[in-house]
Amino acid sequence: MTDDLTLGAREVPLGGLRGLTVHRTLPQKGFPTVGAWCFVDHFGPTVHPMAVLPHPHTGLQTVTWPIAGEIRHRDSLGSDVVLKPGELNLMTSGDGVSHSEFSVGDLDAPMHGIQLWVALPSGVREGAAGFEHHPDLPVAEGDGWTAKVLLGELGGAVSPATTYTPIVGAELKVAAGLSTIPLRADFEHALLAVDGPVVVDGIEVDHRELRYLAPGRTQVGVQVPTGTTLLLIGGEPFDEELVMWWNFIGRSHDDIVLARDDWQAAAERFGHVEGHDGKVIPAPPLPDVRLTPRRRSVT
Predict the structure, then answer these.
(1) CB atoms within 10 A of CB 128
(2) Which residues are annotated as a binding site?
(3) Would you list the DSSP string of the chain?
(4) What is the sign, positive or negative, of the torsion defined by CA atoms of 187, 61, 11, 244?
(5) Where is the Pirin N-terminal domain (predicted)?
(6) Which of 107, 54, 103 is nearest to 83 (CA)?
(7) Which distant-in-sequence residues (6+ apart) come within 8 Å of 291 by Cβ?
């Protein structure tokens, strides 16, 4: 059993070396998942616009949550949606999908948000792709906190977004002082410090860090000096092996090789995103070693 621990963020350029810089807390070496959540990127606040050309995905759901700024999402299913703060985009890749994301509106205004991935279980990851836009999400509340529930259920509020494993994701608005957030004892959870530092059950967590909470808890205490935003994610521990590379999730090295080859060959499984004059992000070279499943080794 993994103990509670704090995961730091590393800077990663999104969309190329001159792209938007994001702060990634998941996955990390020896720590690939929290429930089925397998990827957490926190971007901004920044005036650098998002400009990500069409790129592919397999074996996952993308969860896009803007806090400030507007993002135009276009995908190979024909979706064309402008995503605004407080709204959710959820794209299920199945066996293959492609999409693009570009800032729109006032490009001098700050961009701020979070992009996450959820690993799909076997039986779904081989299936069809799908896209959902949820402009209205349920709100849970307690003493000193409110939460918009992105996925799953919290405090009796249930998100309409489609999930395939027991999971929760919520944006928490926490007032100054000490608040107690309810948790499911059979879930593992993590809290992302979105706006600034926070004290989680007596442990100081710096801005952008992710505090992991092992299963067995029914609540967690959070303390902040001023009102702040946190992101809560969690779910039943995900027991399927995951091979993750670039934008693909599979179960073997061969799954990844095939997905890369298909993307480079413009195979039908990934479709076509309109509006970019055929421009796409090419896949990087594969490493000279055989890819292996990511397993938790941090305790």
Answers:
(1) 12
(2) 55, 57, 99, 101
(3) -PPPEEE--EEEEETSTTSEEEEEEESBTTB--BTTEEEEEEEEEESSPPEEEEEEEBSEEEEEEEEESEEEEEETTS-EEEE-TT-EEEEE-TT-EEEEEEEES-TTS-EEEEEEEEEPPTTTTTS--EEEEES---EEEETTEEEEEEESEETTEE--S--SSSEEEEEEEE-SEEEEEE--TTSEEEEEE-SS-EEETTEEE-TT-EEEE-TT-SEEEEEESS-EEEEEEEESPP-S-BEEETTEEESSHHHHHHHHHHHHTT-GGG---TTSTT--PPPPPPPSS----B-----
(4) positive
(5) 22-118
(6) 103
(7) 243, 245, 253, 256
Bridging pattern class, strands 111-119 and 153-154: unpaired
34-57 residue pLDDT tens: 999 999 999 999 988 899 999 999
pLDDT by residue (tens digit) across 216-237? 999 999 999 999 999 999 999 9
Token duo for residue 228: 């702040």
| Domains annotated on the chain, with CATH | 5-235 (2.60.120.10)
Peptide bond into 45 cis (omega under 30): yes
For Cα atoms 222, 110, 74, give the angle at the middle one, nearest 5 degrees. Answer: 100
Given a contact cutoff of 8 angstroms between Cβ atoms, the answer to whether 181 and 170 are in contact is: no
Whether pLDDT at 18 is above 70: no
- Is residue 68 within 8 Å of 44, Cβ to Cβ? yes
Give the model's confidence band at 13: pLDDT under 50 very low, under 70 low, under 90 confident, else very high. Answer: confident
In angstroms, the first-to-last Cα distance of the chain is: 7
Two structure tokens written together for 78: 């024909």
